[in-house]
Write a structure and sequence with these properties.
Number of strands: 3
Radius of gyration: 14 Å
Strand order of the largest sheet: 1-2-3
Order of helices and strands: HEEE
Structural class: mainly beta
């Protein structure tokens, strides 16, 4: 709960780099993020840094058609 999802990583333009889009590919992404929630809508006083391993598949138009948050690690 309250971890990065397809919308935050893919749809909110986090995969854009200077106007380049990922298309027609299957990729693994390591996504660094700050986790601020312990339970539903309970904000932590001390957020912690995490890294998520994501498997994503993009069609020929650059649309993410498959998204799976595989694992979450403490950020090193």
């Amino acid at each position: 709960m309250n971890l990065p999802d397809q919308k935050s990583i893919i749809e909110d333009s986090l995969y854009y780099v200077d106007g380049v889009r990922i298309i027609n590919s299957q990729v693994q992404l390591l996504c660094d993020f700050v986790h601020r929630f312990e339970k539903e809508e309970v904000t932590l006083d001390e957020p912690h840094d995490l890294t998520g391993l994501v498997n994503a598949v993009f069609d020929g138009l650059g649309t993410c058609i498959q998204f799976n948050l595989v694992k979450v690690y403490p950020r090193r």
